[in-house]
Every structure is written in structure tokens, then in C-alpha cells.
Amino acid sequence: MDRKKKNRNNKTYTGTFLANARGFGFVSVPGMDEDCFVPRNKTNNAFHRDTVEIIIKDGYRGKGKSREAEVVKVLSHGVTEVVGVIDRSRGFGFVTPDDDKIGSDIFIPGESLDAMAEKDREVKSGDKVVVKMTFYGNSAAGKRPEGEVIEILGSSDEPGVDMVSIIRTYGLPESFSKEVLKEADKAAGAGKTNASRRKKSRFKGLFKRRSSKEDDKVRFDIDADLSDRTDLRNVFTITIDGEDSKDLDDAISIEKVNGNYRLGVHIADVSHYVKEGSALDAEALNRGNSVYLADRVIPMLPQVLSNGICSLNENEDRLTLSCIMEYNEYGKLIDYKIVKSVIRSDHRMTYSRVAEILDEIRGAISPDTGKDARAGSTGFFKRFPFIGRDEKDTGDDKELVNMLSVALELSEILRRNRQARGGIEFTSSECEFKFDKSGKVIEVRPHERNDATDLIEDFMLAANETVATHFYWLGIPFVYRVHGKPDKEKIDDLQAFVKKFGYYLKVSREGIHPRELQALLDKSRGTKAEYVIHTLALRSMQQARYSSICDQHFGLALEHYTHFTSPIRRYPDLQIHRIIKEYLNGDLNEERMAHYAEILDQVCAHSCETERRAVDAERDTDKRKKCEYMKAHIGETFSGIISGMASHGMYVTLPNTVEGMINVMKIPDDKFFFDEIEYVMRGKRSGITYSLGDEIEVVVDGVDENANTIDFIM
After folding, report:
1. CB of 553 within 8 A of CB of 483?
2. Residues 542 and 663 placed together within one structural domain of the fold
3. CA-atom Rg of the chain in angstroms
4. Rounded to an integer, what distance in angstroms lies between the CA atom of residue 692 and that of residue 669?
5. Which positions ≥6 away from 134 have C-beta within 8 Å?
6. Element (H, E) at 675
7. Is residue 703 part of a domain?
8. 4-13, 177-186, 293-302 — which is least confidently predicted?
């Protein structure tokens, strides 16, 4: 598999081969902004996720296209097991992989099937199986990949098998080792507080502010000295998360001081419990991040940490890193400090409850005078039945509502500033699932943003930017979140496309400014072309990635950015927490600086890989569950909008985010073809046209759960 041919610069690169079912592929090279294209005759039999050595070909490949490369050597195989559905014949079988990036069936010799029959049961056609790869194929010799069945997951239509197959396909971890769990239990046991063992107060949930006497009753039982931490337990602090969230890694506090806004973003100090070099740390690095599938979470850390001692649970002392920022009335950062701290969250709020309060706050502001109608009114606070339960607690309720009022003010200022500098806001296409007790999908609905989700996003972005800027100017090794400029040729293609809909993009020789893209998205919002323009604009972007070199974040229009706010679920955040603490402790000497300089590139590359794996697994899970849901609605009629077109048909998206395709041959009343110039589906005889954004009625015609596709007819 070793070819010695080099390019004219005689330079090779090492990366991960990402296959395509049509035979070609891409190679992701750490540090490169874009993947390299590998034609099908230049793959050198590389298999999906192989680590390969490539040369980058000289010459121009074409407008809007990636650099071309050739695989000269396969260094190692990244896929050792494949999950798929088996089709048995007499004496052998073929497995069709679930992962559609693997374009070839896997040949299963009869001996493997016989061995499985003796070990477990007879392998039947339609079974979902796990295959151990024994040969990766040789296209030049006409030989398929081969493997042996090592596990039968069950029938492909058996409940629960679909999720197990996705977990196995992406190599997601299914459990923690005994050593890791033992370390986690030990770390969690050392951090228990008196608060977790004392009798619950009858005031729990009423946001009662603690006095200094009450503070004395709640102290850590750990040996760690808290004298070097800023004690913020008297500061009114809350968490805001989803209803089902259990790993609460961020909390906020905010107040107005002399006309300025003092915002505190407090992040769980996971690094206090997950020590560098431990088995727990190695496992967290290997996982890279938590994976949020439709019906479960595969956590980066054991639950005793992620949902326990590290989670900023209500009325519990917690170790944190705090970024305390002061903004003036225009949203300009005028002062900040980053400190080790200890907090106690006064209440665990949810996005939906906070959104209700923020709606009431907006309604209380007079549109004529701009004054707050709440002044001197207790009736306003009585409109929140989930806050005050007792008339005497009205003062405490006021503190919460006043805090959120100030938070809303600053959030809107920060958001306006981000929009003014060109930060891009794409329309979300995320969805949520509702399951019955047996785990069956009974509802698919779009994920809805509100003022509360926006508020938390604004504050986390602010903390991430502040931390990144601070450590960039210190010049010490660090992990940044970077997002490069879009390739000019891709933007030229986008510009040509949007002209068909009457839009114009201003592109200079240096490329495009994010402000221009945001203007395009704003203009198309609410129009028929909104969905496809937002989709194509998003596809023209580079992928954000982790890097030890600070570069711009194009999408946010920022010069410095990092991920600081989610160390429970992202390893890069945990990594920089260690660096921050060593700096604050005065322990970041030359030896430690050299250590971080040596490991950070590898940490960044691995984190990018695990992030991509999680995104792909989450996307496949959503597709699979949507198919499961729509299978129960075959024959039913739905309204949807035409969201995409191709020569083979039209894509239609329903209000619940489910997407299906109408085959061009099944469009009634005429023989239709795709008019690429006008970007419409046109009838040859009648001249009838279907355009993007048209609302049409469709009938669910069929569902292929193995291919994750849904077919509609009109």
C-alpha cells in the first residue's frame, strides 16, 4: 500500500481519510482549514477513518473545489468493527454497513456464520450484526472487504437495536472502566458538603437570600484550603438550563453598580476533581465530549461527577472558576477579573420559566415612557406562581425578577453589539423528540429559542471572549476556538446562486465580511428562499475547530475566542481550566509551559475528531428517529415547504423539521425536469413550475429505516 510518488515539493501530510459511498473521499489534516479531496482512483484502497499519508497535488482543481490529494500510504485502520444488516445466501453472506460512508458491502464467509451459530444462534437475513474486519478490500484486484460476525444485536426492526447500532457504528463508549469509576467515586466523596446532608429547609425554592449566619452553617468537608478562592456564596446566583438537564456547569450573577453592569459567569471547576494524568483524565480525553443522542446522553465524565459534585446544583457549595466582567451602559468591557471561587446557586431555573419572567418584564416596560411599571407594585410579582409561595417572600422574589431585568438589559446590549460588528446568526434546524414509556417516538418538534436561551448564550460568549483575549495577550500556551474565513470561491458560488432570487453579496478581494452574510440572512428571513439560502450559506462556511494558535472566529466576528464554559461536557474547556489555575496559582513555570506547548496540538486535533464524531452520531440518530416516527404515519397527508431541489426530485420539509423527498418521476400531471438556471422544477408540456419555499401537501409514501430516508408523493 506504499507509493513513493511525491509532489514537486516532496512533502507529505498525515490525516484521517473520510470516505464517500461513491468511492472518493476527503482527508482531514490537523491544522488545515479545509479537507483535501481524494479522487476514487487515488485512494490507494484507504478505508473510512484510516490514518493515511498523502501528497497534495499541484495545480488548479476548479472553482470552489478543495485541494486535490493522493493517498500514498495507509498508516493504520480507524475502523476495526462495522455494524450493518446481513443478507444471507447459501454458505456465505453480505453485510450492508449502517454507515453510508462505507460504499461497499462486507463479504462474510460461511465459516464465520457457522461459528456464530455455535456460539449464539443462527444468523438470519435482516439481522443487525457487528462485523470484525479481517480484510479491507483491494479495488484494483476486484476484491471486496471481508469480515466475520462477532455479535448479533437483534433483528433490524427490533426496538432499541437502532440506537445500539449507532453507538457501535461510531465507536461511542458504552461504559466506564472500574478504575475510572473508582477514581470518580473517590473524587466525589472528597467533595461532599454539609449542605447535601442537612435537613431541607421549608423555604427551598423560594430564592431566599442567605445571611452571613446561614453561610457559616454550610462548609466544605474537603481538605482543600479555600483561602485562595474568592468566596461568592453571598452573591445571588442562579443556573438556567433545560428542564431535563442534570450536568449544570455554568451559573450567572449580575447587578448594576454605579450605572455599569457587573456580570459574573461562574463555571464548575472540574479540574479540581479530574487530575491530569489520572485514569479519569485519560478517559475524558479519549471521549473528548459528551454526546447528546435523541433518547440518551453518553457523558464525558461519570455521573457521580457530571451530575453530582461538579454540577452547580441548587443550594450546594461548589468550586468554580469565575469570570467577573464590568460593562458600561454601551456594552463596552471596562474591567474584568478571572478568579478561583466558591459559589452556592440560589436556584435552579429553567429556560421556559425564565422566558416567562422575561416576557412579563418586557410587558412591564411602558412603551411610551420607557419606565418600569413594577415600581411600588407587589401585584407584578404575584403573577409568577412558580416563584413566591408566601406573601412574606415577595422581597426575595423581587430580587430574582430585578436580577433578570438587569440581565435582559445587558443581554440585549451585547447582542446588538455583536450584530453591529457582523456576528452571524443562522436559523436553527434542530429538533426535539418526545418518547412514550416504552421508548417509542410520539412527537417530533423544532427546538425553539427564546429570550432565556439567548441571554445565556450572550453571557457565555462574553466570558469565552474575555478569557481568550486575556490569555492571548499573556502569550502562554492555550486552546482557542477558531473559525476561518470562507473560501472565496465558495462565496462566489453562493453569490451566483442568491442572484437568482434577487439578492446581492458584496465581496472584496480579501473575501467577505461576516456583516455581509448576516445582511443576506436578514433579507431572506421570512421569504420562500430562506431555508435554502441559510443552508447554502452555512455550507459555505469552514468548520470551527480547536487550535493552539489564536486566529479569528469569522462567524462571531471576533479576534479572540475560546471554549471556557462547559468543562463537564467538553475536554478543551477542562484543558484550559488547568492552564488558568496554574497561572493563577503562580505555578506556570517554564517546564509547565513547555509541557502544554508539547501536548496542546494533539489535544486540539483529537478534540476536533471526537466533536465531528458526536455531530455525525447525533445527526444520524435524529434521522433514524424521524424515520421511526414517520413510519407510523405512512399514508397520512402533511403540509410542508419545498426546501431543496435536484435532478432526481424535490425535498420537502415539514413544520416538525422532518424532511422527505418526492421523486421527480412521481410528480403528477406532467413529466418534470430540474431547471438549474431558474432553479425550479418545470413540467415539459404544461409549463407548471414548483419553486423553493412553495407550500404543498404531501403524502407519506414510504420509509427506509436502514437508509434513513423518507419518501413523499403529492
Report:
1. yes
2. no
3. 28
4. 19
5. 146, 147, 148
6. strand 672-675
7. yes
8. 4-13
C-alpha cell at 42: 487515488
Considering the domain architecture, whether residues 588 and 614 belong to the same structural domain is answered as yes
In a domain, residue 531? The reply is yes
Distance separating alpha carbons of residues 22 and 31, to the nearest angstrom: 27
Question: Do 576 and 643 reside in the same domain of the chain?
Answer: no
- The pLDDT tens digits for 305-325 are 999 999 999 999 999 999 999
- What DSSP string runs through 412-476? HHHHHHHHHHT---PPP--EEEEE-TTS-EEEEEE----HHHHHHHHHHHHHHHHHHHHHHHHT-
When divided into structural domains, the chain yields a total of 4
Helix or strand run (H / E) with residue 480: strand 480-482
3-state SS assignment for residue 190:
helix
- Residue 159 CB coordination number (10 Å): 12
pLDDT of residue 9: 58
Read off the pLDDT of residues 607-629 as tens digits, 9 standing for 90 and up. Answer: 999 999 999 999 999 999 999 99
Task: Characterize 564-603 residue by residue with b for buried, 16 or more Cβ atoms within 10 angstroms of its Cβ, and e for exposed.
Answer: bbbbbbbbbbbbbbbbbbbbeeeebeeebbeebeeebbeb
pTM, rounded to two decimals: 0.85
> Are 479 and 613 part of one and the same domain?
yes
pLDDT tens digits along 500-509:
888 988 888 7
pLDDT, mean over the chain: 86
In 12-126 the beta strands, taken as DSSP E runs, fall at 13-19, 25-28, 36-38, 51-56, 69-76, 81-89, 92-97, 106-109
For 492, phi then psi, to 5°, come to -60, -40
> Residue 477 domain-assigned?
yes
CATH number at residue 21: 2.40.50.690
Cell of 634: 405512512
Cell matching residue 273: 476533581
In a domain, 46, yes or no: yes
Lowest pLDDT segment from 33-42, 339-348, 691-700: 33-42
493 with 580, same domain: the answer is yes
Q: What is the pLDDT of residue 396?
A: 59
The identity of residue 511, as a single letter, is: G
Q: What is the CATH number of the domain that holds 104?
A: 2.40.50.700
Tell me if 387 sits within 8 A of 207, measured CB to CB.
yes
pLDDT at res. 539: 85
Its domain, for residue 106, covers: 81-169
- CA dist list (Å): 205 to 213, 310, 315, 400, 531: 20, 21, 9, 12, 42
Q: Are residues 595 and 477 in the same domain?
A: yes
Nearest to 95 by CA among 103, 104, 86: 86
Q: What DSSP assignment string belongs to 597-643?
A: HHHHHHHHHHHHHHHHHHHHHHHHHHHHHHHHHHHTTTT-EEEEEEE
Query: For 520-578, what is each residue's pLDDT tens digit?
Result: 999 988 888 888 888 888 888 888 999 999 999 999 999 999 999 999 999 999 999 99
CA within 13 Å, CB half, 667? 26
Question: Are 596 and 542 members of one domain?
Answer: yes
CATH of the domain at 700: 2.40.50.140
- Which of the listed residues 54, 76, 98 is the one where a domain comes to its end? 76
Task: Quickly state the pLDDT bin for 191 (edges 50, 70, 90).
Answer: low
Q: Biggest alpha carbon distance in the chain?
A: 85
Domain end, chosen from 148, 169, 190, is at: 169
Do 581 and 653 fall within a single domain? no
Half-sphere exposure of 698 (CA within 13 A, CB side): 31
